[in-house]
Amino acid sequence: MPNMPGMQMDSAQPSTPDKTTMPMNMSMDMMKPPTTLIDTILNHTTSGTSAEPASTPVSMLMRSYRGWMLMLHGTASISDTQQHASNPTGAIPDVCVQNDPCPNPAVTRGGNKLFSTNWIMPMAMRQLGSHGQYGQLTLRTMLSLEPATITSRQFPELFQQGETAFGKPIIDGQHPHDFFMELAALYDLRLGSHTLLSLYAAPVGDPAIGPTAYPHRHSASEDPIAALGHHQEDSTHIAFNVFTGGITWRWLRFEESGFHGAEPTEQRWGFQPSPNGHAVDSYSSRITFAPTKNLSTQYSIAHIVSPEALYPNENQQRQTASIIYNLPFGHTTADGDHTNNWSNTLLWGRTKSLTDNSKENSYLLESLLNFRTRNYVWTRIENAGRSNELLIPPGSPLPPNFTESPLGHVAAYSFGYDRDYRVAPHLLAAPGAQFTTYTTPSALVSIYGSHPFGAVAFVRLRIAK
Predict the structure, then answer these.
(1) What is the mean pLDDT of residues 3-18?
(2) What is the helix (H) or strand (E) element at residue 41, kind and residue range?
(3) pLDDT tens for residues 230-242?
(4) What is the pTM of this model?
(5) Which of 189, 206, 269, 286 is positioned for an S-S bond with 237, CB 3.0–4.6 A?
(6) What is the maximum alpha-carbon separation in the chain?
(7) Measured distance CA(155)–CA(144) in Å, rounded
(8) Is the Cβ–Cβ distance between 110 and 1 less than 8 Å?
(9) In sequence order, what DSSP letters do the residues of 302-343 get, joined into one string?
(10) For residue 145, is it left (φ>0), alpha (ψ between -120 and 50) or beta?
C-alpha cells in the first residue's frame, strides 16, 4: 500500500514481506509510495474518503497476515494549556443589551487544564479475487479515549464555540471526540487503468465534506489545539449512518454522501441517537483535483439537517474549499523517507443558516515544516466568524428566546515547536510548546480585552516504525 498521510510507514517497506500469505501484486502495490490520486485513495489513511497529496508522509506500522494487510497508526498529546483574557471595566456591548443574554460578566475568560487529545486507527485491507480483479476491501475503525482524558466534557480554548456540555453551550472551550470516531467498510474497484469506483459505508464516519479533518490533517498534526473554524470547516468528521460513492479518473474525483446531520450527543462512549433519530437526512457533494503528487484541492457543499442540539429547528448549508500542498525535500533515508517535509493548508469554510440566511465564514492557513528528521516548527493563522453565543458567560444556559447571530471575526496566530525522541520500539515522543495570540472584534473587547493569548506545553506521542 502506498505511503499514508501524516505518518512514516513502519512496515511500509518491510525487509521480507510474507509472499506466502498475500498475492504478490498486492504486496508490491502496498509497499511503493503513492504517486497519483488513485494511489492515495487506495491507501485509505485519512479520515473518511478525503485525499491529501500523494507525497504526504505517514507514520504507521504494517504487516501482512493470511492475505490481509494490517495497519496501525495513531497519536496522542498530553497537554497543559493556559488561556488568558482580560475583562476590563466597560459598558456592556450593544449586542448584549439588544439580545439580553447576559448581565455584565465580571469573570475573566479563559482558564487552565491538563488534558489529552488522542486517536488510534487500526485497519485491515485485502484484494478480492486473483490479482484483485474483484476490487479491494478495507475495514477501518478509529477510536479515542478523549471522553476519559478530557474531563468536564471540554478543555479551555478562547473564542471556541460549538456543541454542548451538560446541556449548556460550550463557550471558550473545545469538546472531546467520541470513543468511536469511525467504524467503516470501504470498497474500491478499478475500471480500467485510470478509473476507480469507490464505496464507503459507516455507522459512524466522515462524509464527503471539506478536506481531511484537522485531527488527521498533516499540516495540523503537531498542533494540540483545535482549529477555531472547526465548526465551519470540518465538524462533520464524526457523523452517523454515512454512505459515500465516488468515481475517480486520473487526477479528478467526484463524490456524493448521505448521512445523519445531527452532531454527536454528549454521551461520547457509544452510539447515541439524536432527538430526531439516526435517519439519513443530509447530503453532500465534493470534487477533488490533484494534478500532481504534491497538490490536492477540493470544493464541497452540504445540506445539513438540524446539526446543533441547541437549535433543533435550524438546518444549514455548508461550503468549503481548500488547497493542500506538500513538499518532501532533503536527503532520502534508507527507509525511503525524506529528512525534510513542508506541508501547507489553505482552507475556507462557510456555514449558512437556512432559517434566517445568516452566514459565518472562517479562513485558515496552516504550515508545518519538518526539518532534520526530528524537528517540527509550525504556524496556524485563522480568521474565524463568531456568533453572539460568546456574550453568554461560560457555563450558563441559553437565555429564553435567544437567537444566534453573527457577531464578528476573531483572528488567531499560533506558533509552535517540538522535537521527536524515540522512547520505545515503534513509539516517538515529542515535547513541545505553542503560543497563540488573538485579535478581538470590537463587540467582544469589553469581555476579552484587545489581545488575549493562550499557551500550551505538551508531549506528543506517535506510533512509528
Answers:
(1) 40
(2) helix 37-43
(3) 999 999 999 999 9
(4) 0.90
(5) 206
(6) 75
(7) 15
(8) no
(9) EEESS--TT-TT--EEEEEEEEEEEEEEEEE-TTS-EEEEEE
(10) alpha
Residue 171, C-alpha cell as written in the block = 463557550
Quote the distance between the C-alpha of residue 15 and its chain's center.
33
Task: Choose the most confident range, by mean pLDDT, from 274-283, 285-294, 326-335, 337-346.
Answer: 285-294
Backbone angles phi, psi at 33, to 5 degrees: -65, 145
Q: What pLDDT shows up at residue 12?
A: 39
pLDDT at 437 over 90: yes
Distance of CA 207 to the CA centre of its chain: 12
The residues, any chain, with a CB within 8 Å of residue 374's CB and separated by 6 or more, are: 419, 420, 421
Quote the percentage of the chain above a pLDDT of 70: 88
pLDDT-derived band at 328, boundaries 50, 70, 90: very high
Q: Give CA angle at 40 (34, 44), nearest 5°.
A: 125
DSSP string over 243-277:
EEEEEEETTEEEEEEEEE-SPP-S-TTS-PPBTTB
| DSSP one-letter code for 131 | G
Phi, psi dihedrals of residue 87, rounded to the nearest 5°: -135, 75
What does the alpha-carbon distance between residue 345 and residue 368 come to, in Å, rounded to a whole number?
9
Neighbouring C-beta atoms of residue 142, cutoff 10 Å: 28
How far is Cα 119 from Cα 145, in angstroms, rounded to an integer? Answer: 7
pLDDT in tens, 149-203: 999 999 999 999 989 999 999 999 999 999 999 999 999 999 999 999 999 999 9
Q: Give the tens place of pLDDT for each residue, 302-316.
A: 999 999 999 999 999
Q: Please report the domains of the chain, with CATH numbers, ordered by start residue.
A: 7-463 (2.40.160.10)
Cα gap 347→222, rounded to integer Å: 18
Round to whole Å and give the CA distance between 459 and 431. 4
Cβ-based neighbour number of residue 441 at 10 Å: 18
What's the grid cell of residue 411?
Answer: 483572528
